[in-house]
C-alpha cells in the first residue's frame, strides 16, 4: 500500500485538506494551483529577481515531486545577461519548513531545506535557518561562518556551481525538460534526497520507503545524498512531519513557465494553524 495513504485523522477530512494550499509568500502572484499540482507562467519585467513560494495543504515527512519546464516558453522567452544568460530561473521544492528552532530568531522566522533546479540543469541544495526576508537576496541569509546565533544563515549542502553541479534533464514526449525530486525523513534522524530520471509509469510505481531502503529503482539517479543529524532518531513512522512548498525565482528580464506535480508522499498530517 502506498505510504501516501497513511493518514492521521479521518480519511475524508484529509482528502479535502490535501486540496487546500495553506499559505506562502508570492507577492507577484507567479505560482498558481493547490493540492498536488502547481504552475508558473511569469515574465519578470523588473530589474531584480522575482521570488515566490506556495505551501501545500498538508504536512509530510517525504515526497516525490515532478518539476517540468515548458520548453516552448524557454525557447521564446527573454533571458538576462551575464553568467545566467542560458537560464530563465529556478523551480524547486521546499521541505521540513517550520518555525525557527533558534530561541534567538526574530518572531515569525522559519527554517527549511530547498532543492532548486534551473532550466539548464544546474542545481543546488541548501539549509536555511532563521529566515524572515523571503523576498530578499538569498532569503536575506549569510553563510554559516558569517551568521551569529539567531541570525539568518544558509548552509550550502550542494553549492550552485554553474557547469559543475549540473544534471542532464530528461525530456518528455513534448520535449519539455523535467526531473523528479525525492526526499524523505529517515528514522535515524537524517534526510535522504535525490534528483531522479524516470518515466511517468516508473513514478506511479515508485515507493518512497523502498527507495530510501535500497536507493535503487528502474530509472536513473542523477544526484543523491543524505543530510545527517536533522532531528532526533525515532521509531519508523514517527519522523517529524512539516510543511512542504513549491518555490520559484525568475531572473530579471526572463520568462519562466512550468509545472510541479506531487506524486507519492510519506506520512501525512493535517496542517493546524
Tell me about this structure.
With 273 residues, the protein is mostly beta strands. It is 10% helix and 44% strand. It contains four helices and 15 strands. It has helices spanning 11-17, 71-76, 200-205, 208-214, and strands spanning 7-8, 24-25, 31-34, 37-43, 50-69, 89-99, 110-118, 123-131, 142-143, 153-158, 178-185, 191-197, 220-227, 242-250, 255-270. The longest helix has 7 residues, at 11-17. It is globular and about 50 Å long. The protein starts with 6 loop residues before the first strand and ends with a strand. The model is unreliable at 1-21 and 75-83 (pLDDT under 50).
Strand content: 35-45%
Main sheet?
Answer: 15 strands, mixed
- Poorly predicted runs are 1-21, 75-83
Q: What is the succession of H and E elements?
A: EHEEEEHEEEEEEEHHEEE
Give the overall pLDDT as a whole number: 81
The gross shape turns out to be globular
- Based on CA atoms alone, the radius of gyration comes out at 18 Å
Q: Which percent bin holds the helix content?
A: under 10%
Number of strands: 15
Derived structural class:
mainly beta
What is the end-to-end distance?
A: 30 Å
Number of helices: 4
Amino acid at each position: 500500500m502506498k505510504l501516501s495513504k497513511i493518514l492521521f485523522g479521518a480519511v475524508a477530512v484529509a482528502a479535502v485538506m490535501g486540496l487546500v494550499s495553506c499559505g506562502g509568500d508570492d507577492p507577484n502572484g507567479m505560482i498558481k494551483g493547490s493540492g498536488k499540482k502547481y504552475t508558473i507562467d511569469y515574465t519578470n519585467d523588473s530589474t531584480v529577481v522575482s521570488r515566490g513560494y506556495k505551501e501545500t495543504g498538508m504536512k509530510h515527512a517525504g515526497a516525490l515531486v515532478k518539476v517540468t519546464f515548458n520548453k516552448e516558453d524557454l525557447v521564446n522567452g527573454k533571458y538576462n545577461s551575464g553568467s545566467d544568460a542560458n537560464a530563465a530561473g529556478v523551480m524547486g521544492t521546499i521541505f521540513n519548513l517550520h518555525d525557527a528552532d533558534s530561541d534567538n530568531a526574530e518572531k515569525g522566522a522559519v527554517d527549511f531545506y530547498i532543492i532548486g533546479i534551473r532550466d539548464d540543469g544546474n542545481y543546488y541544495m541548501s539549509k536555511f535557518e532563521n529566515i524572515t526576508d523571503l523576498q530578499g537576496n538569498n532569503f536575506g541569509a549569510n553563510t554559516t561562518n558569517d551568521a551569529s546565533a539567531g541570525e539568518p544563515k544558509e548552509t550550502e549542502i550542494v553549492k550552485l556551481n554553474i557547469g559543475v553541479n549540473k544534471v542532464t534533464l530528461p525530456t518528455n514526449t513534448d520535449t519539455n525538460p523535467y526531473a523528479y525530486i525525492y526526499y524523505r525523513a529517515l528514522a535515524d534522524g537524517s534526510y535522504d534526497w535525490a534528483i531522479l530520471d524516470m518515466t511517468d509509469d516508473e513514478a506511479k510505481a515508485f515507493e518512497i520507503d523502498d527507495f530510501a531502503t535500497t536507493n535503487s529503482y528502474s530509472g536513473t539517479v542523477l544526484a543523491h545524498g543524505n543530510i545527517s543529524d536533522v532531528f532526533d532518531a525515532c521509531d519508523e513512522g514517527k519522523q517529524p512531519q512539516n510543511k512542504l512548498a513549491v518555490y520559484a525565482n525568475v531572473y530579471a528580464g526572463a520568462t519562466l513557465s512550468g509545472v510541479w506535480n506531487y506524486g507519492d508522499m510519506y506520512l501525512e498530517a493535517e496542517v493546524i494553524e
